[in-house]
Amino acid sequence: MRGALVAAAGLVLSGCALFATSPEQGPEQRVMGLLEHSGGNSWQLQPCSGREALVVEDGAGLEELFAELAQPGQSAIFVDVSGRLVGQGVLQVSQVWRMQSVGRGCADQVGAIARWVALGDDPLWQAELGEQGMRLNTREWVPVIDEQLPGVALNFRTLRGEAAELWIYPQGCRAIPGSFFHQRAVLEHDGLRQEGCAYRGW
């Protein structure tokens, strides 16, 4: 998404929250924020909500992804992860939904209104899937029919308006420079087949 991406220094902490259940409600939490490498094996995550930073225990390959995606000299990167609190202020990460060294970071709230978000950057496109159906490139919502092929893919097809079909595959995706998403996506629209990535909304 070259036209829409900004340097990681522009990743802001406003407008984003810690989307989680409290420890009393359940151990699994989804947390978004800036992951900072403070040297050695030390990692801290500053949640988008602005609450106190969490010490991170890496159980999902964060270190390898950080090394792969971070821009030269970059010490903090936006992440969207799930994990469990294993101590006071300590988060053990088990799932990486997104990691982006460029982009809108905490200000990107599309996932708050969508079950799935799929996007690509060559050419630039975005599809959102929610209760109202599919919205392509921020146009109107149109109803869809969906099909699940267990372990293979999710498929969504529009029922009226512009013909579009979206496939979401359970494979890690690096199709967008400087970013990792936990799913791969393919959009078929206007006779074109466009590759991209996808992530689950919250």
Structural commentary:
The chain has 202 residues and is mainly β. The protein folds into two domains: 93 residues, Nucleic acid-binding proteins (OB fold (Dihydrolipoamide Acetyltransferase, E2P)); 91 residues, no CATH class. 4% of the residues lie in helices and 49% in strands. The strands form two sheets. Strands 9-8-7-6-15-14-12-11-10 form a nine-stranded antiparallel β-sheet, with no helix packed on it. A hairpin with a 6-residue loop joins strand 2 and strand 3. The radius of gyration is 17 Å and the shape is elongated. The N terminus is likely disordered.
Share in β-strands: over 45%
Per DSSP, the total helix count is: 1
Topology as a string of helices (H) and strands (E): EEEHEEEEEEEEEEEE
Topology-level CATH name of the largest domain: OB fold (Dihydrolipoamide Acetyltransferase, E2P)
* N-to-C span: 22 Å
Residue share in helix: under 10%
Reported CATH architecture of the largest domain: Beta Barrel
Q: Uncertain regions: pLDDT < 50 for 5+ in a row?
A: 1-26
Taken together, the total number of domains comes to: 2
Count of DSSP strands: 15
Class per helix and strand makeup: mainly beta
Silhouette: elongated
Defining traits:
202 residues; mainly beta; OB fold (Dihydrolipoamide Acetyltransferase, E2P); 2 domains; five-stranded mixed β-barrel; 1 helix; 49% strand; elongated; disordered N terminus
